[in-house]
Amino acid sequence: MNLFADLLASTNGVKGGGTPLTQAGPRIQKGRRGVEVKSAREIAIMRQASRIVATVLREIIDMAAPGMTTGDLDRHAETRIRAMGATPSFKGYHGFPASICASINNEVVHGIPSAKRVIKAGDLVKIDTGAYFEGFHGDSCVTLCVGEGVPEEARRLSRVAQESLMQGLATVKAGSTLLELAGAVQDHVEAHGYAIVEDYTGHGVGRNLHEEPSVFNYRTRDLPNMQLRAGMTLAVEPILNAGGKGCRTLKDRWTVVTVDGSLSAQWEHTIVVTSDGCDILTDRDF
């Protein structure tokens, strides 16, 4: 899940004795601390949280079909996350009302699920969700090409977005830098003629859903060129638009759409940096 820039600035790097829970979901803690390097015990818990996320997304990939609503998918996600002993990371987070973000076609991020929002054949649907388990979060997003009649351009956009994620992850290891990751994503995206959304970034993840560092998907001097260390846990999430990079937020104060009405795609994994690469904690191939 992405955060608006001001929200991210207020919650980056928060650590402590676990994120307190309310009935609605994880309560937001205040304060700032540096980038965490997780212990083996903490990574083992994050692996379990991330497996829950991967399981739910795998189920949603299999079940999503024309005629269903985004509200149907949200109910399934919440039921399954809770059945596996976790709490939905998104529900109640800064007031977000659901357990998944469901963003369709030109919606970029933070789409609010609804029983009135029917998925149609040919839709490009982004499903982003997280699970909070024993004090730690997992976070991941997939893009679905639903039913028959999905335009080839939509399929290509989703494919390039997923490829760009994997190109970025291929650079990750202890001693590599965030800008190496960002550059690999940017080069792959731009080689295919797409625009990288710059308003939203990846992030550290762990005790809090959003921690330091910000994980950009393009080269920028605004990002300290941090060297990665084994045990860092990151949510890497390239977002691509078929047209321009510009985005705007709708009146619901959550749903972000492309300014020019073009399609948007996103893929995300939670990973842990290792000495010689990275381990994809939200890998759905299990």
TrEMBL record:
Q: Which PROSITE patterns match?
A: MAP_1
Q: Sorted alphabetically, which keywords does the UniProt record give?
A: Aminopeptidase, Hydrolase, Metal-binding, Protease
Catalytic activity entry: Release of N-terminal amino acids, preferentially methionine, from peptides and arylamides
Q: What is its EC number?
A: 3.4.11.18
Cofactor annotation remark = Binds 2 divalent metal cations per subunit. Has a high-affinity and a low affinity metal-binding site. The true nature of the physiological cofactor is under debate. The enzyme is active with cobalt, zinc, manganese or divalent iron ions. Most likely, methionine aminopeptidases function as mononuclear Fe(2+)-metalloproteases under physiological conditions, and the catalytically relevant metal-binding site has been assigned to the histidine-containing high-affinity site.
Q: Which GO terms describe its molecular function?
A: initiator methionyl aminopeptidase activity
**Subunit composition?**
Monomer.
InterPro entries hit by this protein: Creatinase/aminopeptidase-like (IPR036005), Pept_M24 (IPR000994), Pept_M24_MAP (IPR001714), Pept_M24A_MAP1 (IPR002467)
Name the Pfam families for this protein.
Peptidase_M24
The question of whether Signal is a record keyword is answered with: no
Query: Could you tell me what this protein is called?
Result: Methionine aminopeptidase
Domain of life the protein comes from? Bacteria
Q: For a divalent metal cation 2, which residues are the binding ones?
A: 139, 203, 237, 268
Which gene carries the instructions for this protein?
map
Cofactor(s) recorded for this entry are: Co(2+); Zn(2+); Mn(2+); Fe(2+)
Q: Which Gene3D superfamilies match?
A: Creatinase/methionine aminopeptidase superfamily
What are the residue boundaries of the Peptidase M24 domain, all occurrences included? 45-274
Query: What family name appears in the similarity comment?
Result: Belongs to the peptidase M24A family. Methionine aminopeptidase type 1 subfamily.
- Residue sites binding substrate per the record: 110, 210
Among SUPFAM superfamilies, the record links this protein to: Creatinase/aminopeptidase
